[in-house]
Design a protein that fits this description.
flat, 11% strand, four-stranded antiparallel sheet, alpha+beta
Length: 378
């Protein structure tokens, strides 16, 4: 349509076409396909059109332009403020897990986080960083107290063993912990090769790497594979198995199989790690997450272009191992804190006071027990 203004300011017409009135009355009358929608001529010839005097139209357009400019400046200021908050939040959290953070400096950084983060954390990305920090503290022994009486793995080799730079987390483990390789505390294997010509036997549902996400196994689009009875012991999953993506998009992602659907097997793109009696599967999944997001696991990947996490490399992976009883306490604490994170994330859309109370409770639960333990140990 071509509208030739008569006693009408063209920019005022454009404002009308962007107004809620036109959106509510004109757009529903559009005809044509999705790519070429049009408003019928009858709408413009027969629909009422609010028309102030020409001078007022000019004043309206000038005022709208002024207000839109103010909105743009407010949005720019908000974006800068949120970026500044994000940088401060990241810096505050990263100080808690820095390699040179000893007991005394941890207390200082924890106190700062308790005081500052309620005013800084205001968007989902910052909650995501908080979740990562909780897991990082968990695998560094700073989330729950150590108990000297806890039974530890008795068969591990001399703890003077050290790995090449980048092959493990760089921190001083608590006195009751030790370093362990996956091959020393668990059994691992790749899944079943997909080969219709060779695979025979009964049909079983199987998991692919697209089903395995961080701490979550998604049961959409489950396919089937033929498995001989003699192969069942090797490839059928048990509750408590940890599945790790071997390559491609999502390499390193880990989740614990809970036995929700039995029987279930897994394809060759996945590692199955079956923990021994001294390893909690959830704690090991936490270690995998921290190792990946802190860039440690990547030291074990091979291949150019498309990396792979081979079974041999997985067996060599060196990670911190607390006594089993402490692993259970860590997992319970993380579950509790992640539930608080869920509530905090949901509260972002509610009143600031509610969000602040939740975050303060979360930080005290995450940091104060470890803070007090470290203080008592000095």
């Amino acid at each position: 349509h071509i509208v030739r203004p008569v006693f009408v300011f063209g920019d005022y017409v454009l404002l009308f076409l962007k107004s809620p009135h036109f959106i509510e009355t004109g757009i529903p009358k559009m005809t044509g396909t999705a790519g070429q929608k049009r408003v019928p001529t009858e709408y413009f010839t027969s629909s009422p059109f609010p028309l102030p005097p020409l001078a007022e139209q000019h004043r309206i357009v000038a005022t709208v332009d002024e207000l839109m400019g103010l909105c743009d400046r407010l949005e720019e200021a908000r974006t800068r403020r949120e970026a500044h908050r994000a940088r401060l939040t990241t810096a505050s959290l990263s100080r808690l897990t820095a390699p040179d953070t000893d007991a005394q400096t941890f207390q200082t950084h924890a106190r700062f986080a308790l005081d500052a983060l309620p005013a800084l954390t205001s968007c989902p990305d910052q909650i995501k960083a908080l979740r990562q920090t909780i897991l990082s503290l968990a695998v560094r022994g700073k989330l729950v107290a150590q108990e000297p009486a806890d039974e530890r793995e008795p068969k591990l080799p001399d703890q003077s063993v050290r790995w090449a730079a980048g092959g493990k987390l760089e921190f001083e483990i608590p006195a009751t912990w030790c370093w362990a390789r996956v091959s020393e505390v668990a059994s691992a294997r790749l899944g079943k090769m997909l080969d219709k010509a060779k695979n025979q036997g009964s049909a079983y549902p199987y998991l692919r790497n697209t089903n395995v996400h961080w701490f979550d196994i998604r049961m959409e689009d489950i396919k089937e594979i033929s498995l001989a009875d003699s192969e069942a012991a090797d490839y059928l999953l048990q509750a408590g198995d940890v599945l790790i993506c071997e390559g491609g998009h999502g390499i390193g992602r880990s989740a614990v199989w809970r036995g929700d659907l039995a029987p279930m097997t897994f394809q060759k793109a996945l590692h199955r790690v079956r923990p021994g009696k001294f390893l909690d599967p959830d704690f090991f999944a936490f270690c995998c997450f921290v190792y990946f997001h802190e860039g440690v696991m990547q030291a074990y990947f091979t291949g150019v272009g498309i990396p792979h996490f081979t079974g041999k490399a997985l067996g060599r992976l060196l990670f911190p191992l607390p006594p089993l009883a402490e692993q259970h306490r860590i997992v319970a604490k993380v579950d509790e804190l992640m539930a608080l994170c869920d509530r905090l994330e949901a509260s972002l859309a509610t009143a600031d006071t509610t969000r602040r109370r939740l975050l303060e409770a979360l930080l005290h639960e995450a940091l104060e027990p470890a803070d007090n333990t470290l203080a008592a140990a000095q």
